[in-house]
Design goal:
Radius of gyration: 42 Å
Strand content: 25-35%
Distance between the termini: 66 Å
Length: 405
């Protein structure tokens, strides 16, 4: 695996020199964002080795199956050992096992691991370089930055940050491990009893606590061992196929456990300075319209100057949603509109008269010409015909543009 290039990094372009220390491609850039201290937590780096699988199988036989024989009305537990180099050499040469005093060991069970191979249907894709997707993610809600606080008896503390501690663990290697479980007994009846005790556990998950692995019992072979000047021995070989997982503390000179915190977000405040009150006119300032897309996407802005407050999506919709309503003729100086005014999301009050414009036959009418207080029911607008200079007729078109509900 190519090494991380720790030297000669241009901080302006963030590009390393094209060094090729071990591979055909450029070295990876060292990203210090992934370097998090581990000396302040109590989480151990997960590890599962071939020894863990060996111990789990041996533990299961001793503590769960508990092979035993009845001799002279006494229950004799059958010892289980693992085939070390010297013991297996004696078994391979002689066909049986002796103790340090030269006595034949019987009954006894010995385990021997034959092979370890990665499963074809569950091979990983981390060729040469570990892939970032070959991981499992675990989160902790409470940590040093976001401590737990009792709601019944709260302790005065600073406001906790919205932070999650994340542990990223590499996916282990899925392997198939082959074992031979060799059993020696003095008599065939004893061998039959042990085989009857072991066979029901085929396809069980063999192991202890969190180390449990699916185990299959294969075809059992029997053999009679005759030694000169000794009693004969009956031996059975029970093949075991174990579907296990292996994970070391480090792979390719990097730890298989990484600690990080949830993604931080940098937020910039937008301040819009306006000269007039934006709720006292139907004209939306150009500065406000420039940030309309940002506000509609969930952002917020602060208004200062002629108005003060926070501009969000609801307020932006209220400002820009200007519609026309046609009035109904009542008399020479009165018209009505069967529609209610909109509610201001900031003040929670109805829109004021300054947020509407009145047009008669397309001509803008100044607000001193008419009197009207917007309401939540039918609107009644009264015109001063002396100031207007003419009387309203039924054929005139009166349009009121503004913030309607």
């Amino acid at each position: 695996m190519p090494r991380l290039n720790r030297q000669d990094i241009d901080r302006k372009t963030n590009k390393p020199n094209p060094m090729r220390t071990e591979g055909l491609t450029d070295d990876l850039l060292l990203n210090r964002a992934y370097q998090e201290r581990r000396d302040d937590d109590v989480i151990r780096t997960p590890k599962r080795t071939t020894y863990d699988v060996d111990y789990a199988i041996k533990w299961f036989i001793e503590n769960e199956i508990q092979p035993q024989l009845i001799t002279d009305d006494q229950i004799i537990p059958v010892p289980v050992i693992f085939a070390s180099g010297e013991k297996w050499d004696n078994v391979r040469r002689l066909g049986y096992l002796r103790d340090e005093k030269g006595m034949l060991q019987s009954p006894i069970i010995m385990l021997k691991r034959n092979s370890v191979a990665e499963r074809d249907q569950m091979k990983s894709l981390d060729a040469n370089r570990p892939q970032s997707e070959n991981v499992r993610v675990y989160k902790t809600k409470y940590n040093e930055r976001n401590k737990y606080q009792d709601d019944l008896f709260p302790i005065p503390t600073n406001i906790p940050q919205e932070s999650e501690k994340i542990y990223v663990v590499d996916i282990p290697k899925y392997v198939t491990m082959e074992y031979d479980m060799m059993i020696w007994c003095d008599f065939t009846t004893q061998m039959n009893s042990l085989i009857d005790q072991i066979l029901p556990y085929g396809r069980f998950a063999w192991g202890n606590e969190n180390n449990k692995f699916s185990t299959t019992i294969g075809q059992i072979s029997f053999e009679t061992v005759n030694t000169v000047g000794e009693d004969r021995l009956v031996r059975a070989t029970v093949p075991l196929t174990v579907l296990g997982t292996l994970l070391s503390e480090q792979e390719s000179r990097r730890s298989t456990l990484h600690k990080m915190y949830s993604v931080k977000k940098l937020v910039f405040d937008i301040n819009v300075d306006v000269t007039d009150n934006i709720f006292a006119t139907t004209t939306v300032p150009a500065k406000v319209l420039q940030i309309q897309q940002f506000i509609n996407n969930g952002g917020t802005a602060t208004i200062s100057g002629g108005s003060s407050g926070t501009l969000d999506a609801a307020t932006m919709l209220y400002l820009t949603n200007l519609t026309d309503e046609i009035a109904t003729y009542v008399s020479v100086g009165t018209v009505t509109i069967a529609h209610s005014a909109a509610t201001n999301p900031v003040t929670t009050m109805l829109a004021t008269v300054n947020e509407f414009d009145v047009y008669i036959n397309g001509q803008y009418i100044d607000k001193v010409v008419y009197s009207w207080i917007p309401s939540s029911s039918t609107q009644t607008i009264t015109f001063d015909t002396a100031i207007l200079g003419y009387s309203i007729e039924a054929s005139d078109t009166v349009v009121v543009k503004g913030r309607w509900s």
